[in-house]
Amino acid sequence: MSKLIVSPSPHIHSKDSTRSLMLDVVIALIPAVICSVVFYGWQELLVLGVSVASCVLLEWAITKYMLKKPSTIGDFSAVITGILLALNVPYTTPWWVIVIGSIVAIGVAKMTFGGLGQNIWNPALVGRVFLLVSFPTYMTTWSQPQGLFGVDAISGPTPLGTVQEGLMQGATVQELTSAYNYKDLLFANLGGSAGEVCALALLAGFVYLCCRKVIKPWITLSIFATVALTSLIFWGIDPARFTDPAFNLLTGGLILGACFMATDYVTSPMSVWGGVVFGVGIGFLTMMIRYFGSYPEGVSFAILIMNSVVPLLNMWFKQKKFGRK
Amino acid sequence: MSKRTFSIGGVHPHDNKMSRECALEQLPLAPTVYISVAQHIGAPAVPVVAVGDKVKVGQVIAEPGGFVSTFIHSSVSGTVKSIGPRADLAGKPSSHIEIAVEGDEWAEGIDTTDTLVTEIPSDNKAIIEKIRRGGVVGLGGATVPTHVKLSPPPGSKCERVIINGCECEPYLTSDYRTLLEKGDKVVVGAAILRQVMGNVPCTIAIEENKPEAIAHIREVIARLGYQGIDVMVMKMMYPQGGEKQLIDAVMHRQVGSGALPISVGAVVQNVCTTLAVYDAVQKNKPIVDNSVTVTGACFPKQANLMVRVGTPLKYIVDYLGGVPESAAKVISGGPMMGRAVANLEAATVKGTGGLLFLTEAETRRQSAGNCIRCGKCADACPMGLEPFLLNKLSKAGDVEALEANAAHDCIECGCCMYSCPAHIPLLDNIRMGKGAALGAIRARAAAAKAAAEAAKK
Amino acid sequence: MVTIIIWTIAVVTILGLVLALVLYLVAQRFKVEEDPRIDEVEKAMPGANCGGCGFAGCRAFAEAAVKAPNLDNNYCPVGGNDTMAKVAAILGYEVQAKAPQVAVVRCNGTCAARPTLNEYNGYPSCKVKAALYSSDTGCAWGCLGCGDCVAACQFGALSMDSGTGLPVVDQEKCTACGACVKACPKAIIELRPKGPRGMREFVSCVNKDKGPVAKKACANACIGCGICVKTCTHAAIVMENNVAYIDPAKCKLCRECEAMCPTGAIHGVNFPKPLDKDAIKERIKVRQQKAKEAATAQAAAVTASAVANKKADAPAEAVTAAAAKPVMPGAEEASEKKEVTNE
Fold it and tell me: Which of B180, B202, B209, B183 is CA-nearest to residue B250?
C-alpha cells in the first residue's frame, strides 16, 4: 500500500468505454464488410482500406498538428466513419475521390466542430453527400457486382435508379420491378453502394448492437415502420406509379442508414420518444425524396435533415422526472 | 410472485458479495474508542460526561442538541480521556469523546441475554420514547434519527412500513448476515414498527440475490405467526435500496421533489435499524455496536464483524491482517455511494456499514473524454434527470437552470458516472450544482418566511 | 454590357437606400430613451466585464453609477483611481482615491514543505475537492492546488507554479477584481493594498490548527507562537485562532516579524534589499536589552522611593507589589514610544 487514493463516489465504473462501444459498432459492421468484399471483389477491399486509413490518418494529423491535443484515434470513431463512408460509395470509386470524401467527413464535418461528440451531422454522410453532389459520375455509375468468384462486371443503375429513370420514361412500376425478386434484394445480387449490398448482413449487425445494448432499436424500427407505412399508402393509391413497401425497405441505403447512420449517438436524440420522432422524420423524408425528388435515393438527405433538428428533439422530448408531473 | 423494481433507470453492477458466507463475528474491544457526537443527520449531540468520568456500556454520554438529533451512548466501559476535535474519515475535524476501555461492564437495565422477547408493549408513545433514548438512527446510510421518521407530521398518515433489506450496494453483506442470523429479531422489530405506525401492513423487501434470507424470513414470519408482515422479492438492480426507488417499487407511488416518504404514506426502515429498534424497545439496549462488512477482492480475510461504535478503522483492519499491499483505496460503505477514507485513524460511527478495499485497477478513474451524447447517463438515472446537462450547468454555475432541470432531486447514487462510457466525472460536478440549487431554494424559502413574519407584524 | 453594369449599380443603390430608410424608421420607432451619460461612463470603463465591482458588467456598473447619488458604493477595482476620476468627472461627483490593491496568496505550503499523505483522484476542482475532504496533505486549511483561482481570473494574472504547487499572482496583471477570492473554497486569497513601491508584508498561512499539528502538516505553517506579535512595535499583528494576521494599515514594513518568524510563514515582497535576518535580530536584541535595562532602572527607582516611603509610614511589601504592577507596562510603553521615534 502506497498512498491511498481519495475520490468522490462512485468508486467503480462499468466496463463500457467510448472505445468499447465504438469497437462493438466496428464488429457489427464486419458481416457487411465481408459480404461487400465477397460480392464486389478485391476492389472493394481497396476502397475500404483507403477510406479507413485516410479517415484515421486525417484525425490523427488534425489533433496533433492543428489542435495540438492528445490524439483521439484510439476511440475507433474514425474507423467507423471510414467504414461507413466506404460502404456508402460504389466499389468503382477512384481512391482520390474517397480521400476527398474523408477530408470532408473528418476534417469538415467532425473536427471543425470539436471532434467526437461535438458534430451536428453524421460525418460519413456529410462526406457521402458531398461526393454525391460533387462527383455525380463516379457516385452514380453502378456496376453489377463481379465478386470474388463472380462473372464479368456489367454496368447498370441500381434498382431505385432503374425505377426512377423508367418512371420518367413512362413505364409502370410493375414492369420495372419485375426484374428483381426479394430474395435477390435480401441476399445481394444487385448493383449499388457496397453497403447496400446485403440486407441480411446489415440486419445481423443491427441485432448484435441491440443485444449488446450499444444502441436502442427504437430509431431503426420507427424508420422501417414509417417507410413501410408511407409506401403502403402511396402504393395502395397507385401501384403503377409508386413502388411497394418491401421493395422500398430492401433497396438503396435504407437498412445501412437506419441501422448504422441514424443510430449514431452523437447525431441522434437521446430519449426514446425523441428517437421515435427522429425515425419517423427520416422514414417520411426518405419516401418523399424517393417518390417526388430528383434523386433516386433519399436516406442520406433525410438523415442529415433530421440530424439538424436533434437539439430541438432533445429539448422537447425529455424523460419523465421521478415524482414530477 | 413477480419480482418488483423501480420504474426509471438503474444499473447492474456486479454484486461481488464475497463475504456472504462469513458469519457475524464479534470484534475484540479496541484499547481506546473515539465516539463522535455528530453521527446522525441534524444537530450534534451535547456531551454530558466530563474528562475523567467512568462510564459503562450503554450509558448516555451525549444528549440531543435538538428535535432532529439523538442520544449517544458509550459503546465501552472505561474512563473518558478527552472531549474535543478529532479528524473524521475525511480528515475534517469534528467533536469526539475519547474513552479508554477498561473491562466490559454494561449499564444497569440493559438485557444482554439472547432470548427473543416477542411481547410488544402496547403504549406507542413509550415505544417511540424508548427508540429515541436508544439513540436509534437510520443505519442504511442517511442516519436520520428514527424517532423523527416515526413521528409523522400532523395530517399525514402512514399506510405501509417497508423494511429495506435490499442491500443493493455491491460487496456489502452486513444486512444479509443480519437477516440470516438475527432474522427473528428483525421480524419482531418490524412488528413493533407496524404497530407504532398504526397497525399498517409491513413489507420486508429483499433483493433476489439473497434467496436464503428470503426463505429464512418467510419461515420466521410463519413460525412467529405474524399477520400483516410479508416478504417481497425485489429485482437485482441498483439503487433498489434507495428510499424513493424502494417506495416506487413496492407501492407504485413516487415521492415528489423535496417531499418525505410519509407524503405518499410510506415509512422505510433499514434491516439493521429494525434490529436496533428491537434492541431498544425489547431489551433496553441502545446502539452500541453495528455490523460492518470488511471485504474486497484484494483483501485476504473477508469478514462480517460486530463492531463497537467509535472503534478506530485501523484497529479493525489490523485485526484482519492490515491493509493489503495491493489496495489503493479504502471505502467506508459500498463502492457506489461510500466515502473514500483519507484517514484510517478515524473511528466508526453508527452508520458505518462496511470497509471495502479496492485495487488500483478496480478504482482508478480513467481520463475523461468528450461526451458522445449516448444518453446512457440519462437512461441510468433513477430520478429521470439528465446528468450530461446538469454536469454542464454545474460547471457554468447556472443556478437557475440547475433548479429548472431538477438538480436538487439528485440522490447522488452514482449511476450516471458509473455508466458514462467517456468516463466524465458527472457526479463530482452535479453534487456542486445540487448544492447550489438547494441553497437557492432554501434561501428563497427563508426569505419567504421572513417576509410572511414581517407581514404579520 | 454597359447597360447590365448600370442596371446592377442602380438596383444595388436603390436596394441600399430602401433598406437604409427601413432601418432608420425602425431605429426611430423602437428607440429606448436612456441617459446619455451611461454610454459615456461605459466608454470610460475598462470593458473587461469581470464583475469585480459587484455588478454584472461594465454597462451595469455604468447604469448603477449614473443612478446612484454618489460614488461611495461604486468602485471599479480594475480601472482603479484613474477610471474613477474619469467617471466622477462625467457625473460631476467627488471620488476619493483608494489605495490600489493586489491579490495575495496566503499559503506557502509548497510540495517540499507539505508532503502529500494521499492521492486525490477526482474532478480537478478545488470546490469539489474541498467538499469531499480536508486535503491530500496533512493541512486542512491550505491551498488545494487544483487552480480554481487560475480559472476564475479573467486577466491571466494567476498561474500555477508546478514546482511549489501553489498559485502565483502576476502583480502587473492583477486588477484586484476579487474573482479569485470568491473562487477559493479555502479563503486563502486576500486583497491587500499594494503598498509603497509594491512593498508589502503578510502572513502566508491561514492554518488555524495548534502549533504542533500545523507544524507536522507543513514546515512553513504559521504555528501561532506569537513571536511576531511580541516583536512588532506597531501593534500591527494580531493572533487569532492560532494564526497571525498583519494589518496592512498599521504595518510599517520594518520586516522584524519576518526575520523572527521561526517557520518563515511571514513573507515580504518587493523590498529593494534581501532580508538581513541577523542584522534585524541584532537590532531587536539591542532594543530589548535597552528596554530591559530601562525597566530595571525604573523598578529600582520605584523600590528606592518605596523604601523611602516605608521609612515614613506604610509597610513596604504591599506598596512595592502594588507599585511594581502598574510600573511594568508603563516602562514597556515608554520603550515602545522610543522605538517608534527611532524609526
Answer: B202
Position A168 scores a pLDDT of: 67
- 8 Å CB contact between B71 and B63: yes
Reduced to 3 states (helix: H, G, I; strand: E, B; else coil), residue C52 is: coil
Find out whether C45 and C62 touch, Cβ atoms under 8 Å.
Answer: yes
Mean pLDDT on B73-83:
95
Nearest partner of B29 among B322, B352, B316, B351, judged by Cα: B316
Q: What is the pLDDT of residue B332?
A: 94
**Chain C interface disruption, residue of B428, B429, B430, B434, most C CBs within 10 A:** B428
Q: Tell the burial category of B108 from Cβ atoms under 10 Å away from its Cβ (0-12, 13-18, 19+).
A: exposed
Confidence of residue A93 (pLDDT cuts 50, 70, 90): confident
Which of the four pLDDT bands, split at 50, 70 and 90, describes residue B269? very high
What is the H or E stretch that residue C267 is in? Answer: strand C266-269
Are C253 and C316 within one domain? Answer: no
Instruction: Please answer yes or no on whether B92 and C133 come within 8 Å at the CB atom.
Output: yes
**For A20, which residue in chain B has the nearest alpha carbon?**
B421
* Measured distance CA(A277)–CA(A298) in Å, rounded: 18
Quote the pTM value. Answer: 0.86
Asked if residues B13 and B383 have their Cβ atoms less than 8 Å apart, the reply is no
- One domain, residues B277 and B394: no
Give the domain-ending residue among B235, B264, B282: B282
Calculate how close chain A gets to C3, using CA atoms only, in Å.
35
Higher pLDDT among residues C32 and A19, named by residue: A19
CB of A287 closer than 8 Å to CB of A232: no
How many domains does chain C divide into? 3
CA dihedral of residues A287, A293, A297, A300 (deg, nearest 10): -80
Q: Which of A88-102, A310-324, B36-50, C47-61 has the lowest mean pLDDT?
A: C47-61
Q: Are residues B271 and B151 in the same domain?
A: yes
Q: Do B93 and C132 touch (CB under 8 A)?
A: no
> For the segment B251-263, what is each residue's pLDDT rounded down to a tens digit?
999 999 989 999 9
- Quick check: C128 contacting A, CB < 8 Å? yes
Determine the pLDDT at residue A280. 96
- Residues 6+ positions from C258 with CB-CB distance below 8 Å: C201, C266, C267, C268, C275
**Interchain CB contact of C118 with A (< 8 Å):** yes
Average pLDDT, chain B: 93
C332 and C286 share one domain: yes
Position B316 in a domain: no
The identity of residue B214, as a single letter, is I
C-alpha cell at C267: 513573507
Q: Grid coordinates standing for B437?
A: 440549487
Average pLDDT over residues C224-233: 91
Residues of C in contact with A6 (CB under 8 A): 118-122, 132-133, 136
CA-based nearest distance A119→chain B, Å: 10
Residues C253, C168 share a domain:
yes
ipTM of the prediction: 0.90
How many Cβ pairs within 8 Å bridge chains B and C?
39
CATH number of C271's domain: 3.30.70.20
Which chain C residues are Cβ-neighbours of B428 within 8 angstroms?
Answer: 122-123, 125, 128
Three-state SS at B271: helix
Closest CB from B8, B364, B422 relative to A5: B364
